[in-house]
Amino acid sequence: MLVILLLATFFYRKNLFKRLDGLEKQKSNLKDVMVGDELEATGKIKLNGESFDKFNEYKEQYEKITNSDLTSIRSDMSDAEDFLNSYKLLSASVTIGDLGDAIEVVDGKLNDIHDGLSELQEVDSLHRKAIEDVDNTIREINQQLLSQNYSFGPSSDKLEDKLSTIKGVYEEFVAETENGDQNKAEELLGKINNLINEMNELMKIIPDTYVSLSKEFPRQLDEIERGHRTMIQTDYNFVEDDIDDTINALKESCQEGLKSLAELDIPETKKTCTYIEETIDSMYAIMEKEIVAKRKVKKNISLVYDFIFHAKNQNRILSDELEGLSKNYNLEHDEIENTAELADKISKIETIYNNDYDAINGNKAVYSVIQKHQQDAKQELSSIEKQQKDINDSVAELSKEERVARDSLQKFDLQLLNIRRRIDNLNLPGLTEDFLERYDYVYNEVSNLSASINQVKISMDEINQKLANISDTMDHLLSDTENIVDSAMLSERLMQFANRYKNANEDLNAACAQAKDYFDNRYQYEKSLATMAAAIEKVNPGAYKQMETEYYNEKKTTK
């Protein structure tokens, strides 16, 4: 047990010696010497204001570290070594732990001082370099102002003033840099950079703007003025000819733009330039519009005349045709009135055309207006001709419709005659009131149709409506007639067939009596057939179906 304790003590003491050696190395790696050199170097820089206060703070911190913190660390290291040598392992362990924390704190402080001193040196270096850079930039701007003075026009004086302002701030910056007030110098450097950027932007914008206001816009205005004068002399006209007044106003705007440019009021100058440019474009567009319109008007003048002449002629022919048709037919869709309205529209179009033609011959034509008239005329005349065609097509069918109606009337007469003939040929005991009423209704409708169609002046709308009504009712009447004929004939055949079983089957006798009552007294031939068919099927299954098939086959061959 004692051996184990001795071994544990040996290894624990050895480990503490190893930790102490590590701390010694950490202490040796501290930047105290480097920071001291940096303090000496930074102290040679002229500092002032807040920068000087920071330097002094770093210096005080360094002195405290070297005079107090590092001395304390060296003393603790010596104590730790004594504790180990005298086997006071617990005290050695505590001292070594405290040493680690102390060295780490000192290392952090030295790093902060190092970073702060580096920043002071770097800012001083940047400012001294900026002195040279800004001086070169000022020289370049000054040289550009001198060599290109003509391109800045009235802005030159204000640009010179701005450059003087930059030089004044630059001198302050140099003074503060030499004085060592880094914060004040940094603030002035930012101001200088903003002023230089603003100056460069102005020197980039002003030349082109000056050319526009002093040369380009006046040249365009002179060109418009000459072009406008030439157009007036060559018989062009405008709806509201204020071009000369606008030109004079824009020339004044050019002068106003130069004034605002001289004051370096760029937003106002841009606003003026935009207004001048847009107005010039609009005047070019107005004149171009009249030039293009004249070519189109000259090209279309004969075409529009021919279009009007053709529409008038078509309307006259249509009107004459309607007049003739109106003697025999009721024109019930305002054909005559609509045609008269179309004639009035054509007349108005022709009046506008004639006025425009006189304006051209009288050298008073506004060609863009006349072009619009021509476009409207072609569009409206196309619509008129379509309406004329629609009216013509609608009345062109009247004679054909009349022939169809007369053919239908003849067909209805024959159908009624055939119904009567077929019913009479059967020698039936009678017909139901319902059938007779339908027959009479159709007969009366056909008679009314005959009366309507044989008038001197007829209404095809009325006749076509009657035809549609009669056609539907006639179809039902023909279907009812077929049912009566087929049911009556089949019922009679079944009654004759039933005679062979009459005395042998009481149910069949009763059915025959019932069917005969339906047939002779009630005229309900379908019920008579249904009664006989059911009774026969009970006595002789399949007999009715066979007789029905034979009947319809005979019917087909006799048609």
TrEMBL record:
Negative regulator of FtsZ ring formation; modulates the frequency and position of FtsZ ring formation. Inhibits FtsZ ring formation at polar sites. Interacts either with FtsZ or with one of its binding partners to promote depolymerization. Its main location: membrane. It is found in: Cell membrane. Residues 1-2 are extracellular. Keywords: Cell cycle, Cell division, Cell membrane, Coiled coil, Membrane, Septation, Transmembrane, Transmembrane helix. It is a single-pass membrane protein. It comes from the Bacteria. Belongs to the EzrA family. This is Septation ring formation regulator EzrA.
